[in-house]
Amino acid sequence: MPSHGQPARRPEWRAGWWSGAQRRASPNFGPRPAGSAITLVVVHSISLPPGAYGGPDVERLFTNTLDCDAHPYYDRLRGVEVSAHFFLRRDGGLLQFVSCDERAWHAGRSRWRGRAGCNDWSIGIELEGLEGQRFEPVQYRRLAELLRALARCYPIEEVVGHEHVAPGRKADPGPGFDWARLARALRRRRPVLAPLLVLAPASPTPG
Predict the structure, then answer these.
(1) Between the chain's N and C termini, which has fewer beta carbons within 10 Å?
(2) Which of 150, 138, 153 minimizes the C-alpha distance to 185?
(3) What is the pLDDT of residues 44-56, one digit of tens each?
């Protein structure tokens, strides 16, 4: 019960949805295999069209409402059904498309530490950006905040890039993503949720 007339705190998580993100439900998801512990986070980068920021088309892609006639690049996206759990804009705005209790369709053909099909036990986070280019300081701060929240709810052990789980096929978030900066942002708050995360190396590691 709230005391001294203070309102009750909103639950941080509700059925896999985080209170710190705006909800935009995607139809592109499915159930996780029974008994799958969610131990992995996969970081991606995306912009639509490539290099254009701030528009609505990533959200439209994940909700199957993208007008594929609106840009020549989009012709390759016809019929594509994809999603991520989260999309982190360059201004720090955060959208959630799929409950973390469900399997989003973000990693595709993937393998990590000898185990295939990373979607089964991972959470996908898309950063608004172009692979190889730099990301904004607020994106690192918000990503660290999100990762700490995920670690409070799920047994997260590692954070890797799409390039690490699909080497040779994917190259995001690429060399412009500063893994050391993310690690520092995660250490900045106390208490440290050790052993929270083992961040991926800078170069892809074979599965």
Answers:
(1) N
(2) 138
(3) 999 999 999 999 9
